[in-house]
Amino acid sequence: MEEYTNDEKNILLAEISYYKKLVDEYVSLNSELNEYYVRPIDMSLWKRILIFFVSYVLIVNIFRIFGLILIVILFYLFFIWPSQNVRGKLKKNMSRIDEIHIKLKNIENKINPELIPDNYINQYALSKLESYLVNKRADTLKEALNLFEQEKRHDEQMNELSIIHQIQESTNRKASEAVTLGWINLFKR
Predict the structure, then answer these.
(1) How far from 136 is each of 71, 115, 130, CA to CA, in Å?
(2) Cα 6 vs. chain centroid, distance in angstroms?
(3) Burial of 132 by CB count in 10 Å (0-12 exposed, 13-18 middle, 19+ buried)?
(4) Which terminus, N or C, of the chain has the lesser number of Cβ atoms within 10 Å?
């Protein structure tokens, strides 16, 4: 088994640390960028239509005189204002948005790892690889990657088992309910 010297391991850890910082910065900028596109009323169109319709029915029946005015206000609040709010935020912060896009492009251009495969350039994988090396669970990048993939497969299998367990519990509950209904029907006769 090939082991890295301390210098090689330090170079690998330095690369991991460098890309962790880049990825963290990228995620942070991306989150900030997404905040400019969030609507103040974060509901799907169908939910807004449903709420508007229910409000319309209630308002028209309760407030016959002021109902039309309230309906116009609700329509504005649910359908027009959210889009205007987003457009206003975008217009107001366009220079910052352009700056973020430039920074994101620069970060994307900087991501060109020498040792780490591109598939592992994300927060979770880099943190795990770093912890394997620091905690001496792995001595080489190959060992760390294999350990990462093994744990990833294990987690996927555990999730699948959890889903199967939930299905079994649901099936058992339904079977129990069916037995109970059977007994109730038996006593009714």
Answers:
(1) 66, 18, 10
(2) 37
(3) buried
(4) C
pTM of the model: 0.63
pLDDT digits (tens, 9 = 90+) for 129-153: 999 999 999 999 999 999 999 999 9
Q: How far is CA 122 from CA 17, 22, 41, 125, 151, in A?
A: 12, 10, 31, 6, 16
In this structure, are residues 116 and 15 in contact, taking their beta carbons and an 8 Å threshold?
Answer: yes
Residues found in the chain: 189
Q: Please report, as a single letter, which amino acid is at residue 166.
A: Q
Closest CA to 44 of 52, 56, 36: 52
Round to whole Å and give the CA distance between 27 and 146.
Answer: 26
Q: Residue 113: left (phi > 0), alpha (psi -120 to 50), or beta?
A: beta
What does the alpha-carbon distance between residue 108 and residue 25 come to, in Å, rounded to a whole number? 11
- CB of 116 within 8 A of CB of 141? yes
14-66, pLDDT tens digit by residue?
999 999 999 999 999 999 998 887 766 666 666 767 776 777 666 666 666 66
Q: How far is it, in rounded angstroms, from Cα 113 to Cα 126?
A: 12
